[in-house]
TrEMBL record, chain A:
Pfam families linked to this entry: Molybdopterin, Molydop_binding
Limits of the Molybdopterin oxidoreductase domain: 2-377
Protein name: Formate dehydrogenase (Quinone-dependent) catalytic subunit
Biological processes annotated in GO: anaerobic respiration
Domain Molybdopterin dinucleotide-binding: 683-799
TrEMBL record, chain B:
Molecular function via GO: 4 iron, 4 sulfur cluster binding; metal ion binding
Annotated binding of [4Fe-4S] cluster 4, by residue: 110, 131, 134, 137
Domain of life: Bacteria
Subcellular location: Cell membrane
Protein name per UniProt: Formate dehydrogenase (Quinone-dependent) iron-sulfur subunit
Keywords: 4Fe-4S, Cell membrane, Electron transport, Iron, Iron-sulfur, Membrane, Metal-binding, Repeat, Transmembrane, Transport
Positions of the UniProt region annotated as Disordered: 1-20
From TrEMBL, chain C:
UniProt key word Transmembrane: yes
One Pfam family cited in the UniProt record for this chain: Ni_hydr_CYTB
Stated family: Belongs to the formate dehydrogenase gamma subunit family.
Record-level GO cellular component terms: formate dehydrogenase complex; plasma membrane
Protein's UniProt name: Formate dehydrogenase subunit gamma
Organism of derivation: Aquitalea magnusonii
Taxonomy, superkingdom: Bacteria
Length: 806, 291, 209
């Protein structure tokens, strides 16, 4: 979230799309209700199903799954054509006026530079026109046809209300109402908050779904505003922390990139990722990349990281390709993986095409499970009848189960969707032989180190060089880890403004990332967490909820990255001249010397209003991007591509390019994609309030309130198929089938799309062959093994099935 | 200082006034704002946790309602109703459970002295150790709430967390409600807050929004804010004008004095008849048959 | 040695049957009145605890019904009304002052009325009793029906109790009657006076008084 949970209450319009906040985030949803009851906000829900969120909404519109870009592009068209967007904001704070490379174009569903064989783009034309100094050219009159906003107008011109209705199945009047509601918040004193979650990310075009919405927020002038922003409601309590700490195969903590084979040297690496300015006078904060990286390396290797050895650059692995879960299980399926560590993860249940996952695990030599629960992955080799029809005699994978504690059985911090690091204290001791994850990992590490010392090995350096400065090497404490992530001074850091003074003395915990150095004099495990545990103590444990502004910016409650800032890009809450767009939402103001306010200014503190410095300080040109340059895999503008399994069999916009042309699709998985002739119904998976993922089926109270697996179908389809309330049905895709009870509902209606009637089938996840609920099938037996082109997040939300009475 | 309750307004099957000296307590109420309820069932879980209840793990019967009905071990359940009117679909979700009537039908019907009591704050509470399992409370209840436990043949229902309330805390469901749809306080305050909600709903086009505090049972200490207060039946059959069934009123009302009179009359008649007429002896006219 | 001339009115099986029903009735009346009248709730103590009273009551009810059922088939044909009974009933005032009226058979009009009242009450009681019987049967019936059943159960029980009061009083008042149900016999005089036609039938005496 660029904003935070409490801030939702400041919105005038809340659009829930690509998510079901009431269902999946009932606690945070309180703030949406507060917005309604206290701020007279309107709540809009756009979803294939009339959801729990829709039950308290002012307005609901149906949409076919996987067509959000079409609807949102239609909104952009409406805003641009009617002129109902915040023009001053758009001109000053977005790249609307910047000129795009002359060779950039879009034709027949493809952007310039496509290589059909590699399914990849050469992105060299996805760029600005640069002047002789290498700065982006701009035309503030917006008359140049190559201005971003003019190209955007042209790009979205195809998304008329008719096209939206035809592709999305959203009635024209409903679409018109959505446009009008959104357009109202282009007023400087009105904001929209979009609440979205996995309903947008889990598509082959997931990242672009979100981008399209982000572009609307830029046009409406809602970024940086209280009650605005882009608000990803994270799917796990600490999944924000997971990405913050770089637990992705090509990431490092703090959103740095793991080196790849293409960067053989530290210099090559830093050159690539240290941002070069695209406009004069900008903060261009990623220019500090070397400071963050070197400090990270000092945290990793300690004294062993020196300028001479490139801070240990050679000890970091270099990737050849992303090892996302789809890639990894594909390799496992090909028999190229021997062992797999499964820590707090239940791939059999959570990953697409469950049968492929089980086959893959069956080809391992060993599998290590670290989990507090009996996961389906830990018992994938057991026969559970139809629900897991395997022959244990034929599976040779050796499974080790290491019971861990769960979050309530250890101290630590959890990062919520609003980027708050909240310290928590253990509520109980772990049961039985359960150990904490750090204890287990420390044990493995120390054993490996001892084995290297005794037996040697091909590359012991990385293991041997790792810094392991914990009081008890066998049990790194949460406090120690937290301090390590925050970082400390390794030498006295002189204050450049006050000679003789020091910003931090050697050994002190750092007050923030501004002090990080590229010369090895600071260490910080995750630069964005710098400031979370300072000399003043554990900032994450603060519990002062005073709220002087009434906007919910409780700076004394816990600690938010970066720098305890609650609303990102908050400089954009003021006009270029420094006056707030809306007085009631004053977050920061210029006091003549510096920026101050109820939030930590997201700007150079002493940069006076009127300077050319723009508010999006992480960007090289300081601007919000309507044109994404080369940052996205499938294009700088969002474009509608059908799900890989589409009920239409075509893309009405460009029949030759049906689905995301840049998405990766493995050969075997392509063969396992179903066609609409055999599998005519659009299916989507989702969570229910009563359960959390595959955990709570192990908890009796949750099992009581949602005991048995079901699927949801509309009354019309039920009539056609002769299915009644509570009947057992069989839902099948090209990859397998599940059997579940039928919930027949008025809340799912057939949609008229491209001349045909499209029925949706809702498939809640949560059940499996372990746990206290009635035994069920793994819902992901049905889902396809294909992901978003940028993130490889699987397309759980759009696929094809058939249904029959079981 | 006595630990006993001395604020008992009414006590089942007790013809005389129970201890009432501490009756100054304000009436309390739980207000359920159906219009901001998302049906998450957190209240169901909180209820089970606080009251240490663990119901059976049931099955899906084709709807979201689970458990499918109130039981002796599920004192509150969410009721989901899909309603389509004038082309507009609504998913009305109502938390069901004891309404804590001012004139409680269960208490009226209960034959066991002290098995059901009504505190001065309005809470109607079952004292299970006095329950004899006859189920009369079920027939007395206009809302079909109490349930008999198969294990011990005693009736159970929501206590409005009388244990929590008595020490100044709100009921567990209120405490846990994530959207703030359930509130708790004095009945006066709740009515005032309900009015705010109703006014707000009217600005959103719910012309018939209103408070559900049915006077047929003397008002309730669990109230609803409804978008369609004119059609409470839409909310899974919530009764428009609930009353203690006239049959129950007859049974527990007029029948008692009538039968007292009848029984007394027959006994007195016999007694005085005997005194007046004396025994009816058959004269021995068989003398000729004797020797 | 008594010089009385005796007639057998009830054989041993009949007497045992009657007293089983009677004991059942007493238990049922005690517990039923306890459930009905708060002031009589202490009567449940007869059964040990109130819960036991609630549990035992319906089982005793079934026993009573079965017992009565047997009696019904013994006596129903003696209890069909005839012209003499109407005469009896119209002259009930005279009867109450101790003067018999009409040529009464085994049972007089009042007894027949009582028989049918008891039969009616028992039928209502057994039917409604099953409907309200927890935990076994009540679950199968709608709440509205249970409410009506509860009312009818109480009402018919009270009718029955009132009837039994009359029944018992009549037995006490009409001397020689209790002996019929205890020893099984009545005197000729008793029979001749109260049930002349029955007397003639059992003695073969053609002489009508």
């Amino acid at each position: 979230m660029t904003n935070h949970w409490v801030d939702i209450k400041n919105a005038n319009l809340i659009v829930v799309m690509g998510g079901n906040a009431a269902e999946a985030h009932p606690v945070g949803f309180r703030w949406a209700i507060e917005a309604k009851t206290r701020n007279k906000a309107k709540l809009l829900v756009i979803d294939p199903r009339f959801t729990r969120t829709a039950s308290v909404a002012d307005f609901y519109a149906p949409i076919r799954t996987g067509t959000d870009i079409t609807l949102l592009s239609g909104v952009i068209r409406y805003l641009l054509e009617t002129g109902k967007y915040n023009k001053e904001y758009t001109l000053a704070y977005t790249n609307a006026a910047l000129l795009v490379h002359p060779d950039f174009k879009f034709e027949d569903g493809l952007f310039s530079g496509y290589d059909a064989e590699k399914r990849k783009y050469d992105k060299s034309t996805w760029a600005y026109q640069l002047d002789e100094k290498g700065m982006a050219k701009r035309d503030d009159t917006l008359s140049d046809p190559r201005c971003v906003i003019n190209l955007l107008k042209q790009h979205v011109s195809r998304y008329t209300a008719d096209v939206v209705a035809n592709i999305c199945g959203t009635p024209k009047e409903a679409f018109q109402a959505i446009c009008e509601h959104l357009a109202e918040t282009s007023a400087p004193d009105k904001t929209t908050s979009f609440l979205y979650a996995l309903g947008w990310t889990q598509h082959s075009i997931g990242a672009q779904n979100i981008r399209t919405m982000a572009m609307i927020q830029l046009l409406l002038g809602n970024m940086g505003m209280a009650g605005g922003g882009i608000n990803a409601l994270r799917g796990h309590s600490n999944i924000q922390g997971l990405t913050d700490l770089g637990l992705l195969s090509t990431s490092l903590p703090g959103y740095m990139t793991m080196p790849s084979e293409k960067e053989p040297s530290l210099q090559a690496y830093l050159d690539k990722y240290t941002s070069k300015p695209l406009a004069d006078g900008q903060m261009n904060y990623w220019q500090n990349y070397p400071k963050f990286f070197v400090s990270f390396m000092k945290a990793m290797w300690g004294d062993k990281a020196t300028a001479d050895n490139g801070w240990g650059y050679d000890w970091l692995p270099k990737w050849d390709k992303g090892y996302d879960v789809l890639q990894y299980f594909e390799l496992m399926h090909q028999g190229k993986v021997n062992g797999y560590f499964c820590q707090g993860f239940n791939p059999v249940a959570s990953f697409p095409n469950k049968n492929k996952i089980v086959e893959s695990l069956s080809r391992l030599k060993f599998l290590v499970i670290m989990d507090p629960l009996v996961t389906e992955t830990s018992t994938f080799w057991q026969n559970h009848g139809e629900q897991n029809d395997v022959d244990p005699a034929k599976i040779h994978t050796e499974v080790f189960r290491l019971p861990t504690t769960c979050f309530a059985e250890e101290d630590g911090s959890i990062v919520n969707s609003g980027r708050w690091l909240q310290w928590h204290w253990k509520g109980a001791e772990g049961p039985g032989q359960a150990l904490t994850d750090p204890q287990i990992l420390a044990g493995i590490f120390l054993k490996l180190k001892a084995m290297y010392a005794k037996e040697g090995g091909a590359f012991p350096d990385a293991i041997n060089s790792l810094s392991w400065a914990y009081g008890d090497p066998h049990e790194p404490k949460p406090e120690e880890l937290a301090k390590e992530l925050n970082g400390k001074a390794l030498a006295d850091l002189p204050d450049p403004k006050n000679p003789g003074q020091f910003l931090a003395k050697k050994g002190e915990l750092l007050p923030g990332f501004a002090l990080l150095q590229a010369d090895g004099s600071t260490a910080s495990g995750c630069w964005i967490f710098a400031g979370s545990w300072t000399q003043a103590g554990n900032q994450m444990a603060r519990r002062d909820n005073s709220d002087p502004s009434g906007l919910g910016n409780t700076l004394g409650w816990a600690w938010a990255w970066p720098a305890n800032r609650r609303i990102l890009y908050n400089r954009a809450s003021c006009k270029p001249d420094g006056t707030p767009w809306d007085k009631k939402r004053t977050l920061i103001k210029w006091n003549g010397e510096k920026w101050v306010g109820v939030d930590v200014p997201d700007f150079k503190a002493d940069e006076a209003p009127g300077s050319p410095m723009a508010p999006f300080i992480m960007q090289a040109e300081g601007l919000g991007r309507l044109f994404a340059l080369d940052k996205m895999a499938e294009g700088p503008f969002p474009e509608h591509y059908e799900p890989f399994e589409t009920p239409l069999g075509t893309n009405p916009l460009h029949p030759k390019v049906i689905s995301n042309p840049a998405a990766r699709l493995f050969k075997d998985d392509k063969a396992q994609l179903g066609q609409h002739q055999q599998f005519p119904y659009a299916a989507t998976t989702y969570r229910l309030t009563e359960h959390f993922h595959y955990w709570t089926k192990h908890a009796r109270l949750n099992a009581i309130i949602q005991p048995e697996q079901f699927v949801e179908i509309g009354e019309e389809l039920a009539r056609e198929k002769g299915i009644g309330h509570g009947d057992m049905v069989k839902v099948s895709s090209k990859r397998g089938y599940i059997k579940a009870k039928a919930v027949v509902t008025k809340r799912i209606k057939a949609l008229q799309v491209n001349g045909q009637s499209v029925h949706h089938i809702g498939v809640p996840i949560h059940w499996g062959f372990e746990g206290l609920t009635k035994k069920g099938f793994i819902a992901n037996t049905l889902t396809p093994f294909v992901g978003d082109a940028n993130t490889q997040t699987p397309e759980f939300k759009s696929f094809l099935v058939n249904i029959e009475k079981a | 200082m006595s630990l006993q309750s001395q604020d008992i307004l009414r006590r089942s099957a007790s013809p005389t006034q129970p201890p009432i000296a501490r009756e100054h307590k304000a009436e309390v109420a739980k207000l359920i704002d159906v219009t901001t309820c998302i049906g998450c069932k957190a209240c169901q879980v909180a209820c089970s946790e606080w009251n240490d209840l663990r119901d059976e793990i049931g099955s899906n019967v084709g709807v979201y309602d689970n458990p499918a009905d109130l039981t002796a071990e599920s004192w509150t359940v969410m009721r989901y109703s899909e309603v389509e009117q004038n082309g507009k679909l609504e998913w009305l979700i109502r938390k069901d459970g004891c309404m804590h009537c001012a004139d409680p039908g269960c208490l009226k019907a209960c034959p066991s002295p002290g098995a059901i009591i009504q505190y001065a704050n309005g809470i109607v509470d079952f004292q299970s150790e006095h329950c004899i399992g006859c189920g009369y409370c079920i027939s007395g209840c206009p809302f079909n709430v109490p349930r008999i436990n198969q294990k011990d043949n005693k009736a159970y229902k929501c206590t409005l967390c009388s244990d929590r309330v008595s020490v100044g805390q709100e009921p567990a469901c209120v405490k846990t409600c994530p959207t703030g749809a359930i509130r708790f306080g004095s009945k006066e305050d709740m009515k005032e807050y309900a009015q705010e909600r109703v006014d707000e709903l009217k600005t959103r086009g719910y012309a018939n929004a209103g408070l559900y505090d049915p006077q047929g049972v003397g008002g309730t200490h669990v109230m609803y804010v409804l978008h369609h207060a004119d059609q409470p039946e839409l909310y899974h059959g919530l009764k428009k004008d609930p009353q203690i069934s006239p049959v129950v009123s007859l049974w527990k009302g007029i029948l008692k004095p009538l039968s007292t009179i009848g029984l007394a009359a027959s006994l007195l008649f016999g007694f005085f008849h005997y005194i007046g007429v004396g025994p009816n002896k058959a004269e021995d006219d068989d003398e000729e048959d004797k020797v | 040695m008594s010089k009385e001339k005796l007639i057998s009115r009830y054989n041993a099986a009949e007497r045992i049957n009657h007293w089983i029903v009677a004991v059942c009735f007493v238990l049922l009346a005690i517990s039923g009145l306890a459930f009905f009248y708060p002031a009589f709730f202490w009567l449940t103590g007869v059964f040990g605890t109130p819960q036991l009273a609630r549990i035992i009551h319906p089982f005793v009810g079934v026993l009573m019904f079965l017992g009565f059922f047997r009696q019904f088939f013994r006596y129903w044909h003696h209890n069909l009304f005839n012209k003499e009974d109407i005469k009896w009933m119209l002259s009930v005032k005279q009867v109450l002052s101790g003067h018999e009226v009409g040529d009464t058979g085994k049972y007089n009009g009042g007894q027949k009325g009582m028989f049918w009242l008891m039969t009616g009450c028992l039928l209502v009681l057994i039917c409604t009793g099953v409907i309200i019987w927890r935990p076994y049967f009540a679950y199968y019936f709608p709440i509205e029906l249970i409410r009506v059943a509860l009312l009818l159960h109480a009402w018919s029980a009270l009718m029955l109790i009132a009837g039994i009061v009359v029944h018992v009083y009549a037995a006490i008042w009409v001397r020689g009657t209790i002996r019929a149900m205890v020893e099984g016999v009545v005197t000729h005089a008793w029979a001749k006076k109260h049930h002349p036609r029955w007397y003639r039938e059992v003695t073969g005496d053609k002489h009508k008084p």
